[in-house]
Amino acid sequence: xGFISVGEAARRWGVSERTVRGYxxxxxxxxxxxxxxxxxxxxxxxxxxxKPRTSEKCRTLLKVxxxxxxxxxxxxxxxxxxxxxxxxxxxxxxxxxxxxQTRFIxxxxxxxxxxxxxxxxxxxxxxxxxxxDTVIDVTNRHLxxxxxxxxxxxxxxxxxxxxxxxxxxxxxxxxxxxVGGRETAAPEDVPGRMAELIxxxxxxxxxxxxxxxxxxxDFETIHPFQDxxxxxxxxxxxxxxxxxxxxxxxITDEAKLFYYRGLAQWGRERGYLLDTCRAAQDxxxxxxxxxxxxxxxxx
Length: 299
Hints:
By secondary structure, the protein is mostly helical. It is 52% helix and 5% strand. It folds into 2 domains: 3-42; 56-290, Fido-like domain (Fic-like fold, Orthogonal Bundle). The protein has helices at 6-13, 17-25, 61-71, 77-92, 99-108, 119-137, 145-156, 190-202, 209-222, 229-243, 256-264, 271-290; strands spanning 3-5, 33-35, 38-42, 178-179, 182-183. α6 (119-137) runs antiparallel to α7 (145-156) and α11 (256-264) packs antiparallel against α12. It is globular.
């Protein structure tokens, strides 16, 4: 018996490669094997039939997140998203809090940490939890400069940065900065470039994962804030996936180098960043299955 690639199966069945990977991860293709990070599929495999609709299909992700947030449910997907999104996004940016410390702060609203930690790490962790709540609350709103600045204000509230006269909390940067040694937009150019980016994005009639990632890459290139750009940018991606019926994703700290490479190479090779986001999306799709939540229709 021979094997074919995910790409070949997608062409045969007339679906996206992401759909085929979802079939494999969900155990819906007998004989499919994961070799390294790539699925191989039996040559004679047939496309899985559409799953029957059940009452569980009414459990959409946004609906469940809002219900569990309102009821303060412990151990559900809202709980999972808060801890994982906050821990990983902060850790990518240098937070020294561990996963368990992050979880403890969310679950108890107390610190309970014996080790020496930076006050800003604790504050930005608590603030990030609030940002995730905001994203869930305003999911269906259009993306605006006011919304984006509001997320930044929440993230940096009360931190040492907020006490610096030159640091604009909830507003665009006043001093030039760079990211990964790469030049970013000059402070005087940020308002115009952000307005253009948002106008381009909001004019798209049917936003795809690629559109959301493209917005993110351009946002990080502009780097509109003095600090906090990565975390605000990843929150926006999560919101826009929810808003547009696309499986969201969490960039983990383990995938940081692939993520950084994707951002650095975006202008020359978009596949690096898109593949990193799709891999994270596949992992979130598995999470939806575990919690029996309806995944949005595949592209």
